Write the structure tokens for this entry.
Amino acid sequence: MNFPRIFKTNSVNTARSPIQMVSVSLLLALSLSACETAGYSPLVDYEQLSPASIFATPEPLPSPNYSTEQLSRGRYMVGMLGCGSCHTEGALNGTPDAAKLLAGSSTGIAYTSPFIDDNPGVVYPPNLTPDMETGLGTWTMNQLVEMVRVGTRDHSARSLPVMPWPAFSGITNEDAFSIAAYLKSLAPVRNLVPANVEPGQRTNGEYIHFGIYQSRNPQ
Ligand code: HEC
């Protein structure tokens, strides 16, 4: 598979102008060249960026509640599963902030197509550090485990599971609890991400779009 490509708006006078739109395309849409020939390119509002895959993980704080083995297993899992690629400030638009690893992202992810909707639905990867106000400080271990394994009601209501929980659903209890223990043991980082928006609503935050496109008329 191709390395993801990101496209981001830089237009200033369309309806979408106040919004910084970014799109990630896993495969370049050959069908788009057909649109270009017809005089319209949906990508006109976008510029290409490089996303960052974040496998780096912060050192957990020692905790009386969890064993060292559990914390290092959780850290290993979170790194390997690339949770920080979405949940780190700046990672989705290629400018990761090392001081905000796993502390949430103010770049959102569109879950309806910005090529169809001027205002797609957007979710913002939340702060996973245990900050009491902006992070997961009040979450229980069981809530965290459930989130990693089956997503939330919101996720399952969506046609596109933005957070890839279906891929994690076969995880063992031990591994899921290790992830939860690791997240609970991080140093809290204060970072409030923008509120999610429903399709049709407008966000002032920036966002990206993941997409896989198949050509209709390959030449
Ligand atoms: C492809 C991007 C992506 C990846 C990778 C990802 N997440 Fe998420 N995650 C999201 C988004 C987006 C949301 C918010 C979804 C929503 O609001 O419905 C979310 C929500 C969550 C939540 C709920 C937090 C809250 O405040 O509601 C937790 C916990 C979480 N993710 C943990 C993880 C863990 C642990 C991993 C790695 C095993 C991970 N995520 C990987 C995108 C991602």
